[in-house]
């Protein structure tokens, strides 16, 4: 096992924590859900490519979907 999945998980979890805090304070559902997803998904995805793709999609999603 290399350190790449661990580092990616840490980066996406930090971004998720930021989205979670923002969504909770602003009472916005999309950043809140994306933040939770970003913090949880690295535990279930082992492939580095899929982790990168899913993390980028979840990180950019609140920018395009504003509810």
From TrEMBL:
Keyword Transmembrane helix belongs to the record: yes
Domain of life: Bacteria
Transmembrane segments: 6-22, 43-65
Annotated keywords: Membrane, Transmembrane, Transmembrane helix
Protein name as it appears in the record: Amino acid transport protein
């Amino acid at each position: 096992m290399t350190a790449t999945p661990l580092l990616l998980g840490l980066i996406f979890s930090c971004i998720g924590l930021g989205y979670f805090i923002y969504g909770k304070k602003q009472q916005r559902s999309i950043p809140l859900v994306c933040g939770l997803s970003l913090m949880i998904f690295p535990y279930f995805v082992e492939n580095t490519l899929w982790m990168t793709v899913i993390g980028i999609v979840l990180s950019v999603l609140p920018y395009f979907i504003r509810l």
